[in-house]
Specification:
The chain is of the alpha+beta class. It has one domain. It is built from three helices and four strands, in the order H-H-E-E-H-E-E. A four-stranded antiparallel β-sheet has the order 1-2-4-3, covered by helices on one side. The radius of gyration is 13 Å and the shape is globular.
């Protein structure tokens, strides 16, 4: 599956075929989409997926995936709860 296809699935623009799979595996798709970005590291802190490193070139991608910027810790984060999946 290509990177663009993963982004479409995450944003809810996928064909109906993927709808049930998306609901079950959304966190895996988010991790898959982000892990291939150059210069970033993924961390899981409590219930948050955190993206650290050279994130500025990937700002628009992270925003489209509903990540939030933490200006104090200089990282992007997303709460990984059942409702956000």
């Amino acid at each position: 599956m290509t990177y663009d296809a993963k982004i479409k699935i995450i944003q809810g623009k996928e064909p109906k075929f993927y709808a049930e799979r998306r609901l079950a595996n959304r966190s895996a798709y988010i991790v898959d989409a982000v892990k291939d970005l150059e210069g970033v590291q993924l961390e899981i802190r409590d219930y948050y997926l955190c993206i650290l490193g050279e994130t500025k070139p990937h700002k628009d991608i992270l925003k489209s995936l509903n990540f939030k910027w933490d200006r104090f810790n200089k990282m992007w984060y997303k709460a990984m709860t059942f409702t956000s999946l």
